[in-house]
Amino acid sequence: MAIEQIQNKEAFKEAIAAIESQAGYRKPVGFGICRVDRGQKNRDKILQAVFPVVNWHENYGSAAVFIAALQESGQAVDFAATEGVFDVNDAFIINALKLFHPFVAEAVGEAHRNVQVLKELARQAECEELDDNFRVVFLFEDAAPKSVEAVYLKLYALSLNKAPLRGVNLDGAFGLLHNCAWFGNEPFELDWLRENEIELKLGGAYPEIESVDKFPRYLQHIIPSDNTRILDSAKVRMGAQLAAGTTVMPGASYINFNAGTTGPVMVEGRISSSAIVGPGSDVGGGASILGVLSGTNGNPVSIGRNVLLGANSVTGIPLGDGCIVDAGIAVLEGTKFVISGRELEKIKEVNPDWDVEVEEENIFKGIELAGKNGIHFRQESTTGRMIAMRSRREVKLNEALH
């Protein structure tokens, strides 16, 4: 029996309660409707998934509607599974809109965006028969993803600031995604390009390939905040997270997936996967923040507030607030720094919980200084030895630029 049209919002609440009362029902961690791009050679190969709306720990009423519409369209939902990927068909759209009927007229602008997705699908279905490129995706647990659609849902959650950096399980994601040639927003199978190279080139139809990667670019999927600037689309990978006010300059800058900023930051260097940079900080030209596979022994690096990483420096330990790393030096876990007794006393003033004895000349490995506030890391030009002292400079970004 088809779902009856809901007439008012009170009846909608009752319908949602009935749906959620079924045996084994679980509210999803995340869900959404996406359009998938299939392989040109192998249609069963999903190359990417595009989500116009992502729900993450929210909109559980919409989730219940989608689940009921799927069930009514003949698709069983296994709540014991960690995720589910289902086809969008006419029956699903019709039944979902019947349940959403009290909200259909209101679904414009920022209101009821899940309903807007269904309205657009219904409009497309009126013009021509829907193809098999639309999917409903549910994540019932934040477990290792099992599908390309699930990977993309998580990447979206990160890039839309809905999930915290390092806050989703991406184990095995690389193995699920396919290495593609990207032209605009469209991925191409490399094997298909090889097989059709002669025809494409002689016919003037060979695509202008912008990149070859398993991940698309951030700007291919995400609309950034009004005061966020990305001067070269190649510099930010999908799954990166950019807080409002972040500026990513061209040149040596780069932000990997599951990495990014938590406030206004100037980025002219590299923020590797899992690295996080705090508000008011400046990642100087060519500076590198190491990722978990780059010499940090699996310990992700967080950079505090109002930190300056000098040009071409390398940072492999977490830094607290107000730190400075001079240009061209490497601050790694095993790097040894000399701190005079006077400077150590000053550093302890801004790190009152640091229980360390003060000697005339103190030697610390970088790992022992990890996360401490107000340290200036330097290299003496005459002796070459690495030293650290209390930072005497306040790092402030140009507010007009952020």
Strand and helix map with partners:
Blueprint: H1 9-20, E1 30-38, E2 46-50, E3 55-56, H2 60-72, E4 83-87, H3 90-99, H4 113-127, E5 134-139, H5 148-159, H6 173-176, E6 180-183, E7 186-189, H7 190-195, H8 197-202, E8 211-213, E9 229-230, E10 247-248, E11 254-255, E12 260-261, E13 266-267, E14 270-271, E15 276-277, E16 282-283, E17 288-289, E18 302-303, E19 308-309, E20 314-315, E21 324-325, E22 330-331, E23 336-340, H9 341-349, E24 361-365, E25 375-379, E26 386-390
Parallel strand pairs: 9-10, 10-13, 11-14, 12-15, 13-16, 14-17, 15-18, 16-19, 17-20, 19-21, 20-22, 21-25
Antiparallel strand pairs: 1-2, 1-3, 1-5, 4-5, 6-7, 6-8, 23-24, 25-26
Describe the model.
The model has no long low-confidence stretch (mean pLDDT 95). The protein is 22% helix and 21% strand. It is built from 9 helices and 26 strands. A hairpin with a 2-residue loop joins strand 6 and strand 7 (186-189). The strands form 6 sheets. An 8-stranded mixed sheet has the order 9-10-13-16-19-21-25-26. Strands 1, 2, 3, 4 and 5 form a 5-stranded antiparallel sheet that branches. Helix 1 (9-20) crosses helix 2 and helix 3 (90-99) packs across helix 4 (113-127). The radius of gyration is 26 Å and the shape is elongated. It has helices at 9-20, 60-72, 90-99, 113-127, 148-159, 173-176, 190-195, 197-202, 341-349, and strands at residues 30-38, 46-50, 55-56, 83-87, 134-139, 180-183, 186-189, 211-213, 229-230, 247-248, 254-255, 260-261, 266-267, 270-271, 276-277, 282-283, 288-289, 302-303, 308-309, 314-315, 324-325, 330-331, 336-340, 361-365, 375-379, 386-390. By secondary structure, the protein is α/β, with parallel strands linked by helices. It has 3 domains: 9-164, Alpha-Beta Plaits (2-Layer Sandwich); 179-216, Wheat Germ Agglutinin (Isolectin 2), domain 1, CATH 3.30.60; 218-401, UDP N-Acetylglucosamine Acyltransferase, domain 1 (3 Solenoid), CATH 2.160.10.
